[in-house]
Design goal:
This protein has 133 residues and is an alpha/beta fold. The protein has 4 helices and 4 strands, in the order αββααβαβ.
Length: 133
């Protein structure tokens, strides 16, 4: 659970990063500071789970062979050896807007994130209490 005030800081940081990336043509699709990589999943920007997989692939620098399915996501989250940062914070905004046309897939997607077998990963839900399906 995020500390009060953290949500606004992260939202502003995400917006600033997006605008800076487009202006500066940054090579990275993620933000990193203090040996932590910050990954942002905005539920309102995910039209379907494939979009969520693409966002994760870009921000986690997942290799092109990533299968973009739930099994592949579970496997890749357990690995992530190519990421140099010691910590990875996956910040989920607007969880209620995540694709809900298949509630089972949405539930499984969030469970895979929550139960990732990797000590580097921390999941932060902003504007939500726990894993809401």
């Amino acid at each position: 659970m995020a500390v009060p005030g953290t949500q606004m800081i992260i939202i502003k940081l995400s917006k600033k990063l997006n605008s800076m990336s487009s202006i500066l043509k940054l090579p990275a699709n993620y933000y990193a500071a203090d040996n932590t990589r910050y990954v942002f999943i905005d539920g309102s920007a995910c039209a379907n789970l494939d979009t969520c997989f693409t966002i994760l692939q870009e921000q986690l620098s997942i290799p092109d062979y990533f299968g973009k399915n739930l099994d592949a996501l579970e496997e890749v989250l357990a690995d992530l050896e190519w990421i140099e940062e010691e910590k990875i914070k996956i910040i989920i905004l607007h969880i209620e807007s995540l694709p809900g046309n298949d509630p089972v897939k949405k539930k499984n997607f969030l469970e895979i994130l929550d139960n990732a077998d990797n000590d580097k990963i921390e999941i932060i839900y902003l504007g939500a209490v726990g894993n809401q399906q």
